[in-house]
Design a protein that fits this description.
Number of strands: 3
Largest sheet: 3 strands, antiparallel
Structural class: alpha+beta
Order of helices and strands: HHEHHEEH
Radius of gyration: 15 Å
Length: 96
């Protein structure tokens, strides 16, 4: 079983993990939650969106632009697979 290189990167794993426990998060909520820059959140969220792991909805809250992210079913399966892979790896190196 190969490690999912899309979500293996620290910030992308943090984004899918945050979206796994929150139905939706805005760009600014993700940025604050992950203590990341605009550019980092934007680039990594785009990679997850391109992979089909997150969906992105753009709109306005009054006159203020609002970008909202949601974990897709494919993203949830990818996260569960990644966690299962890591658990198996930990058991293997731990001798269990």
């Amino acid at each position: 079983m190969a490690l999912d290189r899309i979500i293996h990167e620290r910030l992308r794993l943090a984004i899918v993990s945050a979206l796994a426990v929150h139905e939706t998060l805005t760009f600014n909520e993700l940025k604050a939650m992950l203590d990341a820059s605009d550019g980092n959140v934007s680039v990594h969220a785009r990679k997850l969106e391109d992979a089909g792991y997150v969906s992105c909805k753009k709109g306005f809250d009054g006159r203020i632009p609002r970008t909202e992210y949601r974990l897709t079913a494919a993203g949830r399966r990818a996260l569960e697979g990644y966690l299962a892979h890591m658990e198996a790896l930990i058991k293997r190196v731990g001798g269990e």
